[in-house]
Amino acid sequence: MNKITLHKGKEKAAWQLHPWVFSGAIKNVDGTPTNGTVVKVFNIDKEFIAYGVYNAHSRVAVRLLEWDPEHPIDEIWWRNRIRRALELRTHLLTDQNNTVRLVFAEADFLPGLIVDKYGDFLSLQVHSSGIEAVKNIIVDELVQLVQPKGIYERSDLNARQHEGLRDTNGLLYGDMPPEFVEVVENGIRYQVNIIEGQKSGFYCDQRDNRLLAAQYVSGKRVLDCFCYSGGFTLNAFKMGASSIVSVDSSALAIETLNKNIILNGFDATMLTAVQADVNKYLRQLGEKEEKFDVIILDPPKYAPSRSALDKAARAYKDLNRRALLLLESGGLLATFSCSGAMDMDTFKQVIAWSALDAGKEIQFIRQFNQPEDHPIRASFPEGEYLKGLLIRVV
């Protein structure tokens, strides 16, 4: 087996079970491993550290998988990891919820693999060459364990470019998903577009937060920004919001939202669905001096890396400032960031600046996090990406 030796002093993170070895930490490579090949990683004193998957194309040159030398990375290892990830989530699948993230990459010791369950179908994303090399094994194990109607791949990600991989979308097993697959989350029915929808088709990482935020909307006028297919909107309907304005720039999102309103039998006359750029729309609402009781901001990732954090902070600040201007005393803002590069303390500071610029005094009354099917591995804090705050204007 090919061997990787790390520079002296560069092995600390690997010993501490962090799964990434950057190219600059490598002293030498024994052999000629191709991208996706399993290698052994050693320190300068030739002590075994871990098994990993090598990729000369990527800045993350080795993705570590296993620290026990007695557990080599073979087909059985991959199958056992898939099985364990699914076992830890079985209790989340009920008649009130049939959409769950079954595999969450590094958190499940499967770096580069995302698997989401949407009713009878699975949506799969491959971010790394190591997973690409064993994709057939993974699909076979998923078929045996889940017995889905179909497995569809949505590997159209920037991360694949860094791994030297081309984008690939298509059916991996079984039946092609229909244009809309019906799923249930928190007892609410959704039409999910696996093939053309954002990411893998749906954002099940907000499942708990949708339910929590909805506890505050009874009898309130709600503005749901970046609404996508209506997760927060539909929960607000269920919990008795008096009226809801839902905004997204995507025509498909608005179309899907309207389908979901009808699917659940909610009163469509209570909804104003708007296809628009959210920032521009918030500016227009401010010019009209519109006011809301509850506002939800769930924007896309503004900071894909730490180098983009300053620019992202300005974008979050401006977005939240515009929202706060639409709230009177007692109004609530549920605001989120899915940027892993922005930690909670930084996010709070950005929101504080937003409030200062808006001339509002605020209180943080709740924090939101990602749900248990998106766990955060202790040795991989980078897996904590979703954060949110419930803010009250004083």
Separation of the first and last Cα atoms: 63 Å
- Rounded to the nearest angstrom, the radius of gyration is 23 Å
Strands of the widest sheet, in order across it, are: 16-15-14-17-18-20-19
Count the strands?
Answer: 20
Structural class: alpha/beta
**Percent of residues in beta strands:** 25-35%
Task: Please tell me the overall pLDDT.
Answer: 95
Number of helices: 11
**What is the CATH C level class of the largest domain, in words?**
Alpha Beta
Domain S-adenosylmethionine-dependent methyltransferase: 173-375
GO molecular function: methyltransferase activity
Main location: cytoplasm
Domain RlmI-like PUA: 4-67
Question: Can you walk me through this structure?
Answer:
This protein is α/β, with parallel strands linked by helices. The chain has 3 domains: 3-66, PUA domain (Archaeosine Trna-guanine Transglycosylase, Chain: A, domain 4); 75-174, RNA methyltransferase domain (HRMD) like (Transcription Regulator spoIIAA), CATH 3.30.750; 203-393, 3-Layer(aba) Sandwich (Rossmann fold), CATH 3.40.50. 28% of the residues lie in helices and 30% in strands. The chain has 11 helices and 20 strands. It has helices at 12-15, 75-87, 129-133, 135-146, 158-162, 207-214, 231-238, 251-263, 278-287, 309-324, 344-358; strands at 3-6, 20-22, 26-30, 38-42, 48-54, 60-66, 99-104, 113-118, 121-126, 150-155, 168-174, 181-185, 188-192, 221-225, 243-248, 271-275, 292-297, 327-337, 362-369, 387-393. It has a 7-stranded mixed sheet, with helices on both faces. Strands 2-6-5-4-1-3 form a 6-stranded mixed sheet. A hairpin with a 5-residue loop joins strand 5 (48-54) and strand 6. The longest helix is centred in the last third of the chain and has 16 residues, at 309-324.
